[in-house]
Amino acid sequence: MNVYFGASVTLSRDLLPVYQKIVSEIKRQGHRVLSEHVVDPKLKTTGKLDARRIFADEVAKIEKADVMVAEVTEPSWGTAFLVEEALEQGKPVLALYFKDAETPLPVMIQGHPELYVSHYTADNIKTVLAKHFEHFSQANGRRGKLVVIDGADGSGKSTQTKLLLSYYKKHGIAHTYISFPRYYTSFHGKHVGRFLAGEFGGNTDVSPYLSSLAFALDRLTARDEIVEWLREGKIVVADRYVSASLAHQGSKLPPRKRKAFLDWLYRMEYKEHKLPKEDVVIYLYVPVEVAQKLLRKEARRRDVADVDVEHQRRTVALYRQLVKRYRYWEMIRCLNSKGELYPKETIHEKILNALRRREII
Question: Residue 1: what pLDDT?
Fold first, then answer.
């Protein structure tokens, strides 16, 4: 991969030997560094400099890069601007912070939702880089699309998932399917099943930080096969994914504590566990009262979350907030202006239209 390396070059050069080791390790792992001048001890940072040309040159290098590695231990406005430029261009950014530094990691970096942040030492930089580069390489080689069908209990997820799979099969589009939680085929999925059956207490008796781990580990053990399907160019249709935990677990917390939880869960799933990001989340909106009626008609056993109507109400409200928060979410209204449920074929066509807008059909 082509790598742009950024670090402080004006305020302090105390960490120059560390920067040089990072660049050497990036090259040793077989990647090309587009900005080796950053670790040149003779780099000129004072005197008559053409600021516009320098900025344009660095932006041009980022355009050619597949990924940016930013050493952020020493504060640098220039590095910060270039990080945002890389993110704006859709390039993944790994922010490295030296563990032995005297100053703490800046809050604005630590809390940035799109940065991959990692503490490192001189001894583990090899492992840190290799782990992240493997993930970035997989993302760059991704040819398929990940489509998630989600919604509150009783919203018709399974029905719409089946219709979408039939559409892809009819039109000869390479695809596959996965459903979460995997109650019967996953070690962690079986644990989720025990939790939802009420074996560990009621729906709100367990901290969402703890209950989220079982759901997350279930997805983590499916990550490699999802990555492989995407690499093969398949459309992966998932009945629930990270989106379900964001809504169902997040709704258990009061609003003032919710943002911190959502940020934590997002960071764990996508940054620490490195799950593939969805290309689109199709959220099926059905009011709680209607969904409960539909659930009562089903023959399946209802879990502790299904029967907790207040939980379902908070969850639906949070789902709608998440649609506004994440650009890759699409809300499909499943009721007409009279409050009547659309036929399943009508909802299916609404989903297809949303996928066409995003060029996933």
Answer: 95
